[in-house]
């Protein structure tokens, strides 16, 4: 490819994707609201831009074939704080990509688009939206917009409902929801390389033995995760006290399902996560 655009390039996941994406195109345009890091890939350029400003986003899309949209406020906040970056920002990216003639948007959606679904309910890519927060609602909005842009304008989209993407699993919930960085890179790569995707939803989850999420319907992406959170189970389960009345434990959205609307889900998530765990359970 000639050009890929990556939004949210300074974020925890965007930072992981910069190097592999740079190897997939002649040029990588990385953008974030933050200043560029100290080093860039040889074929990477950096643009500081606000997702909520169409006039700042549109010029970045010129000549792009793929847009990997990972920019957002990544937490629950009052609706007004999410409106610009997460709602308007998604529209700006899709509309600018369409006007520029891009072929596809690969979008960092979230498990929180279906966060109120019960963990035992057999969640798959046909599960209806059940957002757990204003943050999750923004993901529903972007997914529906992505489907509309495909069906009305022919702009393809792969919406990745990312669950718990960290270097190692952090808590008992992540025994099912963990997505390793290695598997994240593979999932995004497959979302770009697959010849035709139309509008596709896939779960960002590793090959966890306890995964409550299924990608069985989207095997055509060729995503075969390599990592399994079960290797960390002994220590993670020793920290866990089951409570069948706690939404944070019984819904796929975890703590985001239990917090009041507008209040941080990340704070609640950090409260249940202990020190880093090694694969041997120590």
Automatic annotation (TrEMBL):
Pfam families per record: Epimerase (PF01370)
A GO MF label: oxidoreductase activity
Keywords, alphabetical: NAD, Oxidoreductase
Gene3D superfamilies for the chain: NAD(P)-binding Rossmann-like Domain
InterPro entries: Epimerase_deHydtase, NAD(P)-bd_dom_sf
SUPFAM superfamilies (UniProt xref): NAD(P)-binding Rossmann-fold domains
Location of the NAD-dependent epimerase/dehydratase domain: 4-164
Coiled coil: none
Similarity comment: Belongs to the NAD(P)-dependent epimerase/dehydratase family.
Protein name stated in the entry: NAD(P)-dependent oxidoreductase
UniProt source species: Histidinibacterium lentulum
Origin organism lineage: Bacteria, Pseudomonadati, Pseudomonadota, Alphaproteobacteria, Rhodobacterales
